[in-house]
Amino acid sequence: MKNLVIFGAPGSGKGTQSDILVAKYGFDHISTGDVLRAEIKAGTELGNTAKGYIDNGQLIPDSLMVDILAATYDALPKTKGVIFDGFPRTIPQAEALKAMLAERGTAVHAMLELNVPDEMLMERLINRGKTSGRADDNEETIAKRLGVYHSQTSPLIEWYEKEGIRNSVQGYGSLEEINAKLCAVIDAL
Ligand code: ATP
Ligand code: MG
Q1: In a domain, 174, yes or no
Q2: How far is CA 117 from CA 18, 56, 156, 166, in A?
Q3: Residue 79 belongs to a domain
Q4: What DSSP designation does 55 have?
Q5: How many Cα atoms within 13 Å fall on the side-chain side of residue 161?
Q6: Tell me, what's the pLDDT at 46?
Q7: Over the chain, what is the mean pLDDT?
Q8: 189 domain residue, yes or no
Q9: What is the pLDDT of residue 125?
Q10: Residue in 23, 39, 32, 41 with CA at minimum distance from that of residue 5
Q11: pLDDT band, very low/low/confident/very high, at 33 (cuts 50, 70, 90)
Q12: Which residues line ligand 1 (CB under 6 A)?
């Protein structure tokens, strides 16, 4: 059982690479963005709350997000391992994840960081916006999300470095190249 955090800025390819890793290793996948979008689509109270933040490029408050994450995690079969995609996004979330897994007798085994320059992220997300139908994939909201990433999420790079489990991988090039680098880290665990 491996718990992996896939980490990176918006548009860094977390979802794309997670899908490839899920197919290869049989991991369970928790994408907090997907969980929230499903709630919005279903028109739940949580979805309505989340929509206000997401459409504005902001993060959902930590307390709410931590509860969602724990409920999602506990509902999974957890046989081969779990990929956390889009969580943690703040230091309090990383601390909560660590505590939650410790309570369940486990831990995060590796943080996989996809490194992509901002200009490329901007271009990818604007392109994705043409087909994704995502209200937050427009130029103004993308710029806000990148700002939020740099101020609230990127401090996690140093946090995981101190935990001794940070693995940084170049997040551009072909999907196969990037994936091979991630697999090399996973296979060495
Ligand atoms: P990627 O393109 O790499 O998959 P992303 O930033 O485009 O990443 P999602 O991970 O799908 O998008 O998240 C979309 C939005 O959902 C975020 O901008 C944020 O508002 C909200 N969100 C998702 N995860 C969290 C979290 N852990 N804490 C707070 N808000 C979150
Ligand atoms: Mg995603």
Answers
A1: yes
A2: 20, 23, 17, 18
A3: yes
A4: T
A5: 6
A6: 96
A7: 97
A8: no
A9: 96
A10: 32
A11: very high
A12: 8, 10-12, 14-15, 32-33, 36, 53-54, 58-60, 65, 86-87, 89, 93, 136, 145
Query: Is residue 44 one of the residues assigned to a domain?
Result: yes
User: How much is the pLDDT for 8?
Assistant: 98
Range of the domain at 140: 2-184
Cβ atoms < 10 Å from Cβ of 181: 18
The residue whose CA has the least distance to atom 23 of ligand 1 is 33
**What's the pLDDT at 12?**
98
Average pLDDT over residues 61-86: 96
Q: Is it true that the peptide bond before 88 is cis, omega within 30 degrees of 0?
A: yes
The pairing of beta strand 2-7 with beta strand 81-85: parallel
Averaged pLDDT for residues 65-91: 97
What is the set of active-site residues?
14, 89, 128, 134, 145
Read off the CATH number of the domain in which 26 is found: 3.40.50.300
Q: How far apart are CA 189 and CA 28, in angstroms?
A: 17
Are 60 and 50 contacting, i.e. CB atoms less than 8 angstroms apart? yes
Using pLDDT thresholds of 50, 70 and 90, give the confidence band for residue 49. very high
pTM (predicted TM-score): 0.95
The number of domains in the chain is 1
DSSP code, position 44: -
